[in-house]
Every structure is written in C-alpha cells, then in structure tokens.
Amino acid sequence: MIFPIFVIMTLLEIYVLVSVGEAIGGLSTVLLVVITALIGSTLLKQQGWSTMAKAQNTMANGQTPAFEMLEGVVILISGVLLLTPGFITDIVGLLGLVPFSRVYFIDRILSKNTEKIFSQQNSIFIHKSKPSDKKDSGKNDTIDGEFWED
User: Fold this and answer.
1) What's the rounded Cα separation, in Å, for the pair 140 and 96?
2) What pLDDT score was predicted for residue 54?
3) Out of 52, 67, 84, 149, which could bridge 89 as a Cys pair, Cβ 3.0 to 4.6 Å?
4) Quick one: pLDDT at residue 60?
5) In 3-state terms, what secondary structure has residue 95?
6) Can you say how many angstroms the Cα of residue 79 is from the centroid of all Cα atoms in its chain?
7) What ranges do the domains of the chain cover?
8) Sign of the torsion formed by the C-alpha atoms of 8, 13, 18 and 20
C-alpha cells in the first residue's frame, strides 16, 4: 500500500517541478526549492525547541508530556518532508510546523488509531531479569511481569 503512494507522490512532485520550471525558469525553481528548505529548517529548529521547552515544563509540573511527544513526531516527519525536494512535500512539511495545523494532524492520527490501540483483548508484558553473579543464581530466576485483561 505504501509503495503506490511513493510512486504517485514522486510523479506528482516531478510534474509540479516541471510545471513551475516552465513558468518561472529552471534556476528560479531550484532557488525557490532551496529557499523553502531554508525557511523550513529555520521553522523546524524553532518549533522543535519550543516543543522541547513545553515538554520540560509539563514534566516539571509532574505530568506526562504525551501531547508534546506527539508534536515532536509530527515535527520530525515535517522535517523529513522539508528535506525532500519538491513543492508538495514542502507545503505539507510547512503545515506540520504550524502549531494549529499540527494539532489538527495529531487529532486526525489519534481519531483514526484510537480504536486500534484500545481494542486489544489481552495485553501482556514480561521481563525476565538476568541472573546475578551469586553462586546459586540459577535456582532463583525471577520473572517480573504485568498482566491485565479487559
């Protein structure tokens, strides 16, 4: 499913680059792509530091910075899109760096995946600790775990 998306996006990017190149010239198109990348990298740095400051403030208040971590993921994906040459990926990347549209992206991601996350019937986590250097450590293996059922 993801391969056709890459192919279609690549073809669309090439089409848009050629169309813009025909309209304003090849050198102007390359300069425009470089300028959008520079503007995007500046915004990426600013928004990244802002999100990290919000996460530290949230942790200082004794709360889990879950929303800030999701913002960080959206900012990371936006940065990758901005580094990809092309106008479509630059527009989507810049939208991911604008705070109000970033909140929209996070809401969409959560609304589409909430049922998948919380509909699992059984969840198990088991951690087996490594034996220590004691002489009878082979006899006392400790298994630490959690189990819950809905």
Assistant:
1) 52
2) 92
3) 84
4) 92
5) helix
6) 9
7) 34-112
8) positive
Q: Cα–chain-centroid distance for residue 18?
A: 29
Distances (CA, A) of 91 to 33, 45, 85, 95, 115: 11, 17, 11, 6, 30
Tokens of 46: 């600013």
The Cα 89–Cα 81 span in angstroms is 5
Identify the CA nearest to 97 among candidates 84, 82, 86: 82
Question: Which of 105, 97, 109, 108 lies closest to 51 in space, CA to CA?
Answer: 97
Nearest alpha carbon to residue 46 among 89, 69, 79 = 79
For residues 142 and 129, the answer to whether their CB atoms sit within 8 Å is yes
Residue 56 pLDDT: 93
Distance in angstroms (rounded) separating the CA atoms of residues 4 and 2: 6
Predicted TM-score (pTM) of this structure:
0.69
Collapsing DSSP states into helix, strand and coil, what is residue 149? strand
- Name 127's bridge partners: 144
Chain segment 11-66, per-residue pLDDT in tens: 999 999 999 999 999 899 999 988 988 888 888 899 889 999 999 999 999 888 88
